[in-house]
Each structure stands twice: as structure tokens, then as C-alpha cells.
């Protein structure tokens, strides 16, 4: 049983509701501060919801149940690192950001080192977001394309035409409320969207509880902690989701993504005070923990629902872990319910997309356009230029998503790994600024570049040499950060 007219109406109603809420809740903006920082008046709890929504893409929504299905609960160890990192961000990063009344995360680097590092970091961030979130836009459009393929109107359309239409629809709706509502509109739309996708996951969990056979025993699949140590040094770093790999990896990944990435920092800067931003970042860690538990519980129940059939079994109705939850939604849920859950899938993707457009445009305006422009312009004109930049950001993401229509899944995985490649260098250069007062701007620039080059080498090594990777991806940010710190400290002020 596929999608019905009722399900389609529910999805379309959701998309319309989000656009209206995001557009109206942004209020009237008179300056770039209103547009990109919400007038620094966003409640902490709304910022926390928005942070979680922004870091939860449609890939997370469909992938985590698949991870639990084919494995166990070791993935949850990452959340301990997430919590640790966000406490550290609250204690060390946010006071520096709020004290300087910064407009972007990278303004801190200019205060500490100089304008060259600020621009360099901003450019790295922008290109990272373009690659990673272009993929996420494509992934969000997949279920809409599948829905279109089941309707009579699109029967004569080619696969490419359907995907192009799906991408344009998702991007256009996200762009409308990002353009009109600014970051405040994005945040309040995120609050709505998180409620939708969490509600959808809870409905799926409730229905699965009544559908799963008791004959399938989960046993070792309920294991959370893995304290296994490999027999070799390299084996220790290659082993997936060991406790130390997950804890260290989760800590450094979250330090980078939530302490240095403008996508998240922008939301923290929009709160009323340092105390509010600290509450928002710590609360987001707790919410992510609960959210991951929910998604993986769905995966465990799907394992029982499908009677533990392996993904590689020829008789399995799915062929990849990411297909398991979508298959269940489309073929096993009642009319109306599947519309709600697919709406939740769109919510997870659109929240990341809208936040990406807003954060990229704010970084272009504050880190690049303002410093490089020689003209004094009015607040109204600067706001108009900011909106044009937002449109440009949306168009760029659309074209990147088009690129992935004809690209294999393995290339998508490479693109998603770009964030881990650049995050190490980005976190390392922020740590140099916070804790190594004698490091020069030259040292920070060279260290940043060395961290990125090191991670490119590690991540591309399996592809180029055809050998197993040196380490599991959970160690990527840690290694990139370590290289940046070591190289950066080679260049210290002579007065030391």
C-alpha cells in the first residue's frame, strides 16, 4: 500500500504551515542584526530546539534506525562525548563569544589573530556547508520523489525530472521563510519541525510495539558499551564504536560542530545573555541523547518486526540499512500516519537546510562583504544585500543537490565526510586562539591548513591505495585538531 491522497495532503499542509510560521515569526527586520541574530532576543529553550533540529538531517532520521537494525546500541556512546563537549563549549567558548559581542564564530579569530584567519576560516566553513548540505538537500528530496513516482501525473516524467522538481520544491519552501523571517524565523520553524519529526518517530515506536513478534530475541543487540581493545595499535583506531573511540570522537566532533561552526554558533549568539546560550547548548546535548535513544529504539523494533532478516539476504525487501525505516513507513503504516511521519522526515531535512542558508549568508556578510567593502552603506541597503546573499546560498545548494542525482551512493558518503575533514582544523585553530596565547596568525593559518591536508590524506587513503582506512571516522576530528595544534605551536612569538 503506497501513498494515498490523504497522505499527500498532510505532507503539503505541513510544508505550507512551516513556511507560514517561519515567515511570520521572524517579525520585521530593520538591520542585519535583526536578520542574522534575531535581535539577540531568542529564548534559550527555542535556541536549544533549533540547535537539535539543525543537527538532525533527514539522513539522521532514516539512518539511525538502520544502524541499530544491523548492529547494536554502541552508537549511543557518542552522546556521552556530545554532552562533555557542550559543557566545555559553555565554559570556555561561549564566554569569549558573548564577551566580544561577536556576529559570527569567526569574528573571534580576527580579534585573536587577525583578519586573514577570519576570512580563511569563513571560506572553509562556507565550502563545507555547500558540499555537506547540498547532499542533505538531495537526501531530503528522495522521499518526495518516491511519492511523486506513485502518482499518475508524474508517470510520464523521467527520474531526473522528478528529482529536479522535488529538490526545487523542498529548497523553495525553506528559502521562503529563511528569506522573509531571518534567523528568528528559522529558529521558530525549527521548533515546529522538531515537534513534528519527534512526534512522527514516537508514533512509529508506539505502532511497532504492537506489531513486533515476541519470538525474536534482541540479546547482544542491546549492548551499549564496548570496551574492547584491539590486538594492535592501528587496530585500536580502526575498530568501530569502541568506548574510547566513540567518546573521544563524539567530544571532538561536537566541540567542532557546536563550538566553531556558524550553523550552530549563530543560534547561540541570538540568545539574550551568556547564561541563556549556556543553557541552550547543554540542554541540546540532553535532547540529542533522548532523540538518539528514540531513533535506535525504532531500529531495534524494526529488527523484530522484519524477523531479523539480514540486509544482504536476497529475500529481504530492502538492500541497504537506510532503506529499512522508509520501507516500513511506506508499506506498513496506516493511511494518514505515513503522511505524518514523512512530514517529519521533511522537517528534519528542511531545518538543516534553512539553518545552512542563514548561516552561510551571515558569514558572507559579516566575515567577507563587510570587511572587504570600502563603502559605507545604510542598514536598509545592507539588509537588502543580505537577503540577496541568502537567495544565492539557496541556489548554490540547489545546484549541488542536482549534481548528486546521477552520482553513486559512495560519492555521497565522501561528500558527507567533508565536515569531519575540515572540522579538525577548524577546532584546532579555535583552541590555539583560546589557550595558546603565544601562537601567531601565521602559525594558526599554517596549522589550520596542515590539519585539513592531514585529514584529506587519511580519508582518501582507502580510495587511492585500496587498503583499509588507518582509523575509524570517529577519530578524524581528533587527529585534525592534534595536527593543527602541533604545527601551529611551531610558530610562537619570540617574546615568550
Summarize the structure.
This protein is mainly alpha-helical and 496 residues long. The protein is built from 19 helices and no strands. Residues 408-412 have low confidence and may be disordered.
Describe, in plain words, how this protein is organized in 3D.
It is a single chain. This protein has helices at residues 5-25, 32-37, 44-55, 58-70, 78-99, 107-112, 115-149, 159-209, 233-238, 243-259, 262-269, 274-305, 324-332, 337-372, 379-403, 409-416, 418-435, 441-465, 476-488. By secondary structure, the chain is mainly α. It folds into 2 domains: 5-408, Sodium/glucose cotransporter, CATH 1.20.1730; 417-496, no CATH class. The longest helix is centred in the middle third of the chain and has 51 residues, at 159-209. The protein is globular and about 65 Å long.
Q: Architecture of the largest domain in CATH?
A: Up-down Bundle
Assigned CATH superfamily of the largest domain? Sodium/glucose cotransporter
Determine the structural class based on helices, strands and strand pairing. Answer: mainly alpha
The proportion of residues forming helix, as a percent range, comes to over 70%
Keywords summarizing the entry:
mainly alpha, Sodium/glucose cotransporter
Topology overview:
Layout (H helix, E strand, L loop, with lengths): L4 H21 L6 H6 L6 H12 L2 H13 L7 H22 L7 H6 L2 H35 L9 H51 L23 H6 L4 H17 L2 H8 L4 H32 L18 H9 L4 H36 L6 H25 L5 H8 L1 H18 L5 H25 L10 H13 L8
Helix pairs in contact: 1-8, 1-14, 3-8, 3-11, 3-12, 3-14, 4-12, 4-14, 5-10, 5-12, 7-8, 7-14, 7-15, 7-17, 8-12, 8-14, 8-15, 10-17, 10-19, 11-14, 14-15, 17-18, 17-19, 18-19
Amino acid at each position: 500500500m503506497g501513498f494515498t491522497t490523504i497522505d499527500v495532503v498532510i505532507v503539503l499542509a505541513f510544508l505550507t504551515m512551516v513556511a507560514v510560521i517561519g515567515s511570520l515569526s521572524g517579525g520585521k527586520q530593520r538591520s542585519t542584526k535583526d536578520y542574522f541574530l534575531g535581535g539577540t532576543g531568542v529564548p534559550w529553550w527555542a535556541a536549544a530546539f533549533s540547535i537539535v533540529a539543525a543537527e538532525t538531517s533527514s539522513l539522521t532520521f532514516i539512518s539511525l534506525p538502520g544502524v541499530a537494525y544491523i548492529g547494536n546500541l554502541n552508537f549511543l556512546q557518542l552522546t556521552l562525548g556530545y554532552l562533555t563537549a557542550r559543557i566545555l563549549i559553555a565554559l570556555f567558548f561561549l564566554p569569549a563569544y558573548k564577551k566580544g559581542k561577536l556576529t559570527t564564530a569567526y569574528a573571534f579569530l580576527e580579534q585573536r589573530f587577525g583578519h586573514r584567519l577570519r576570512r580563511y576560516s569563513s571560506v572553509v566553513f562556507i565550502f563545507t556547508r555547500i558540499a555537506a548540505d547540498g547532499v542533505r538537500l538531495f537526501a531530503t528530496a528522495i522521499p518526495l520523489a518516491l511519492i511523486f513516482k506513485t502518482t499518475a501525473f508524474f508517470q510520464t516524467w523521467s527520474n531526473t525530472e522528478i528529482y529536479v522538481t522535488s529538490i526545487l520544491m523542498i529548497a523553495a519552501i525553506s528559502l521562503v521563510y529563511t528569506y522573509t523571517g531571518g534567523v528568528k524565523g528559522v529558529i521558530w520553524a525549527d521548533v515546529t519541525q522538531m515537534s513534528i519529526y519527534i512526534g512522527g518517530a514516537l508514533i512509529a515506536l508506539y505502532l511497532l510495539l504492537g506489531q513486533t513478534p515476541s519470538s525474536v530475541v534482541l540479546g547482544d543487540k542491546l549492548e551499549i558499551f564496548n570496551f574492547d581493545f584491539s590486538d594492535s595499535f592501528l587496530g585500536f583506531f580502526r575498530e568501530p564504536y569502541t568506548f574510547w573511540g566513540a567518546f573521544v570522537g563524539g567530544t571532538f566532533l561536537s566541540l567542532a560542530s557546536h563550538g566553531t561552526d556558524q550553523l550552530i554558533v549563530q543560534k547561540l549568539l541570538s540568545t539574550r545573555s551568556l547564561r541563556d546560550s549556556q543553557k541552550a547548548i547543554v540542554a541540546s546535548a540532553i535532547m540529542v541523547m533522548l532523540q538518539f535513544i528514540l531513533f535506535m529504539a525504532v531500529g531495534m523494533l524494526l529488527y523484530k518486526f522484519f524477523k531479523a532478516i539480514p540486509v544482504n539476504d536476497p529475500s529481504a525487501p530492502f538492500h541497504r540499512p537506510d532503506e529499512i525505516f522508509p520501507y516500513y513507513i511506506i508499506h506498513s503504516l496506516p493511511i494518514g500516519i505515513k503522511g505524518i511521519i514523512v512530514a517529519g522526515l521533511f522537517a528534519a531535512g528542511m531545518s538543516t537546510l534553512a539553518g545552512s542558508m542563514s548561516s552561510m549568508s551571515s558569514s558572507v556578510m559579516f566575515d567577507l562583504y563587510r570587511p572587504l567593502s570600502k563603502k559605507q552603506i545604510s542598514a536598509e541597503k545592507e539588509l537588502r544585500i543580505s537577503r540577496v546573499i541568502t537567495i544565492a546560498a539557496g541556489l548554490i545548494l540547489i545546484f549541488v543537490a542536482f549534481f548528486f542525482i546521477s552520482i553513486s551512493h559512495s560519492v555521497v558518503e565522501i561528500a558527507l565526510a567533508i565536515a569531519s575533514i575540515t572540522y579538525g582544523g577548524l577546532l584546532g585553530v579555535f583552541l590555539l586562539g583560546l589557550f595558546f596565547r603565544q601562537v601567531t596568525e601565521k602559525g594558526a593559518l599554517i596549522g589550520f591548513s596542515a590539519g585539513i591536508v592531514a585529514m584529506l590524506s587519511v580519508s582518501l587513503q582507502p580510495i587511492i591505495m585500496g587498503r583499509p582506512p588507518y582509523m575509524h571516522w570517529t577519530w578524524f576530528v581528533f587527529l585534525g585538531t592534534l595536527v593543527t595544534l602541533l604545527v601551529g605551536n611551531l610558530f610562537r612569538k619570540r617574546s615568550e
